[in-house]
Amino acid sequence: GQNIDQPTEMTATEGAIVQINCTYQTSGFNGLFWYQQHAGEAPTFLSYNVLDGLEEKGRFSSFLSRSKGYSYLLLKELQMKDSASYLCAVGGAGSYQLTFGKGTKLSVIP
Amino acid sequence: GAGVSQSPRYKVAKRGQDVALRCDPISGHVSLFWYQQALGQGPEFLTYFQNEAQLDKSGLPSDRFFAERPEGSVSTLKIQRTQQEDSAVYLCASSLATGGHYEQYFGPGTRLTVT
């Protein structure tokens, strides 16, 4: 089975940097995804990691350590519109389905 | 461009009623997924289609839940004899191909409330 843990809530200041952690324990692994979900809206894709290391995409970066079962999403130069839930999701080996964590609700304050 | 669409966006059903939720995936997307998202939780997998074939229905919570995708495009999730615990947002997602590393594109969801 899959077990994915991430903090329930975080608060950060506009313009700052925030790191959202995700740990996972899985019976197989075929990549880790981060999605952003604004309240009442669909999740939207942010990043995908399958190899160890850092993937950078504009203000967003995602890191993966497979040996530690650990990932983080780094958001730089925070903007008010970044207030949303951030979902960590793991794809199982040989599997197409994603197992999602409960999400981290990020509040960006002025 | 057209994304994944779902209808209705909101559905209120009385306990015991049957409901049908529709998903129009992105044109050409082979894979289609249904997820259930309870308030404050992440999406939970329900079922997966590759074209018209339902390859995995392990996440369907009971035999009251049924999904189909007869022509490999539009999909319908049907819930019979709805119960209060079925209240949730039902998300549909589609993906270009069949590999696990392909990004899933989500629709806006149908919020089902069972009274």
Task: Spell the H/E element sequence of chain A.
Answer: EEEEEEEEEEE
How many beta-strand segments of chain A? 11
Tell me which oligomeric state these chains represent. Answer: heterodimer
Total count of helical runs of at least 4 residues of chain A: 0
The average pLDDT of chain A is: 93
Low-confidence stretches of chain A: none
Largest interface: A-B, 27 and 26 residues
Question: Would you report the number of β strands of chain B?
Answer: 11
Are there runs of chain B of 5+ residues with pLDDT below 50, and where?
none
Helix content of chain B: under 10%
- First-residue to last-residue Cα separation of chain B: 36 Å
Helix tally of chain B equals 0
State mean pLDDT of chain B (0 to 100 scale): 93
Structural class by helix and strand composition of chain B: mainly beta
Structure characterization notes:
The complex is a heterodimer of chains A (110) and B (115). Chain A has 110 residues and is mostly beta strands. Helix content of chain A is 0%, strand content 58%. Chain A is built from no helices and eleven strands. In chain A, strands 2, 4, 5, 9, 10 and 11 form a six-stranded mixed β-sheet that branches. A five-stranded antiparallel β-sheet of chain A has the order 1-3-8-7-6, with no helix packed on it. In chain A, strand 4 (32-37) and strand 5 (44-49) form a beta hairpin. Chain B is mostly beta strands and 115 residues long. Chain B has strands spanning 5-7, 10-13, 19-24, 31-37, 44-50, 53-56, 65-68, 75-79, 88-95, 105-106, 110-114. In chain B, strand 7 and strand 8 form a beta hairpin. The mean pLDDT of chain B is 93. Classes of the chains: A mainly beta (110), B mainly beta (115). Chains A and B meet through strand 5, strand 9 and strand 10 of A and strand 4, strand 5 and strand 10 of B.
